[in-house]
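A note from the maintainers: we've had questions about how concatenated examples are separated. There is no special marker in the raw files; a new sequence line simply starts the next protein. For clarity in this README we add a label.
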Amino acid sequence: MGYRVAVVGATGNVGREMLAILAEREFPMDEVAAVASSRSTGSEVELGDTGKMLKCKNLEHFDFSGWDIALFACGSEATKTYAPKAAAAGCVVIDNSSLYRMDPDVPLIVPEVNPDAIDGYKKKNIIANPNCSTAQLVVALKPLHDAATIKRVVVSTYQSVSGAGKQGMDELFEQSRAIFVGDQVEPRKFTKQIAFNVIPHIDVFMDDGSTKEEWKMVVETKKILDPKVKVQATCVRVPVFVGHSEAVSIEFENEISATEAQDILREAPGIMLVDKREDGGYVTPVEAAGDSATYISRVREDSTVDNGLILWCVSDNLRKGAALNAVQIAELLGRRHLKKG
């Protein structure tokens, strides 16, 4: 016996990826519904590579009663209205927006890192999916934290335009084409030209000068990994279509060598270590796109602090940073609580 699963926001980048990953991982489903806004009602989306087409249902009129799990990928405003309705109808919500991440009654889950926290989902019948840049970071940090106890993390991100949705991807494509043919470039989605440029600004600015994206990485890492870890982040948008990269500096309480860290990471769940000290012996977003792993490269010791390491971390932000992590949460929920399939 399988689950009845609704994917809310099924026509967006992440929603489509959720449907693809449900099919790819053969998630046990008796029924799956593609749910979207009224403007997408009646349009069709494919269930991964199965060839099965799903006709989109209208979120405004969708009855969540009798559905087991709803994967939400529709943004905070729609989530604020419809996630509590789904939860109240007995459907467990796994939400990809930022709305519930810091709610103390909602578990924020990365299955490789804090699976036990999922047991708290019954307080609101809602589980939060972390920010895309946070998800890959904590997957990389967890096994090292277990081994040597992390004191401080300084991370600089290189985040792809797909993190800003289809509009972001379209803008990079259109601006690149315009530059090649000599047309004028007009930023619309981003604050400045993104083609052949980098923008040190993601989300809105906070009072302390950081951006909300940077704040998310700090508070979410603490909630998922360990509240005692100090985190500082600088988040940058780069002209890459898919795949977030991160340069991570880590300070530990206990001694750990680069070789020891490589051995630990090589065996850690969700991680693929590709770390050859030669030309091309590392992973870039192009290689990570379409893959489920969090790739780690360039592990080395930091001579500027005691017990310090530096590493390079790359992952497909639409997968591990969003859709894959949501499906993994659903799998974890099934194993521990729902007991079907």
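[label: protein 2]
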Amino acid sequence: MTEKEKMLAGKIYNPHDKELRAISSRAHALCIKYNGTPETCFKKREKILDGLLPNRGEGTYLQGPVHFDYGVFTKVGKNFYANFNLTVLDTCPVTIGDNVFFGPNVAILAPKHPLRYADRNPYLHADGYMTDKEYGAPVTIGDNCWIAGNVTILAGASIGEGCVIGAGSVVAGKIPANSLAYGNPCKVVRQITENDAIDLKKELF
């Protein structure tokens, strides 16, 4: 297996592999370019996203600034919206469904690091450069979710469709569909039901 294949499979890999460094360096440069492009320059921003986030649905809008580790390993559905300061460390596949909205300062962190410092600390690779041991787990967010501000989503997390994740939450593990969940660690508070529907006539008049 190549180091990229190991990484995407969640196995221990070498993050300083030449192929991976080339992909991440390109992504980091595109992030800087995107972040420096005014939101009024829509076509220019879209062209940058063609390289940074090619697997995106129609209607994707990233307010910026954005920070992707690779970008190409993240897939988003249609009508995805992210407010300020989106961070995605997509060392494993990150999959986001349709009609998903992010508040500011949302972070998706797919990497993991060994708990023992003896395994975690940098070491001298046989090719003569310093590197370390990393691995990760994929992250999945279903359709029609709202992820509020300052939420951190950890490696291996799975958020079902129709969920609302409260501000400041740290999500690890599985959140069932149609759940209102929040906290650190993030826990399900209750199901979202028809009783939560807004009476538009009452709200507008």
